From TrEMBL:
This is Putative ovule protein. It comes from Solanum chacoense (Chaco potato). Residues 1-55 form the NB-ARC domain. Pfam families: NB-ARC. Coiled coil: none annotated.
Length: 135
């Protein structure tokens, strides 16, 4: 039994993109498989993360939607890219710069997802980079 003492009500949630890992650690139930986000769901998440309740300016909607599509349905990628966009000026030029940078990368496999983390790291302020590397 995975959790022999359930009286303490503790739980561990393991997330992985590797099915072999999920199968190896499963206990009494099968792994729960999550689907990728649709383009509209990615766009909704990106807007919520960047604008935090405010609406996206009309001039940024098209480029913003394309940026969210480049994350290929991966919520972590959307959130990381949103973190970069929050630091940028809310101008068409700065968002197009992000879009062009992302369009040169394919996101999907584990190796490709690492590139989005690298992109996020490169866009961190210098004083935060050591914090990121600490983990």
């Amino acid at each position: 039994m995975c959790f022999s003492d359930v009286s303490k009500r503790s739980r561990i949630i393991l997330t992985t993109r590797l099915n072999d890992v999920a199968e190896y650690v499963k206990c009494e139930s099968d792994p729960h498989h999550l689907r990728l986000f649709r383009d509209d769901e990615s766009w909704t998440l990106l807007q919520r993360e960047v604008f935090q309740g405010e609406s996206c300016p009309p001039k940024l909607k098209d480029v913003g939607f394309e940026i969210s599509k480049s994350c290929r349905g991966l919520p972590l990628s959307v959130v990381l890219v949103a973190g970069v966009l929050k630091q940028k000026k809310k101008t068409l030029d700065s968002w197009k710069e992000v879009e062009q940078s992302l369009s040169s990368q394919r996101i999907g496999s584990l190796e490709e997802s690492i590139s989005i983390i690298g992109f996020s790291y490169k866009n961190l302020p210098h004083y935060l980079k050591p914090c990121f590397l600490y983990f």
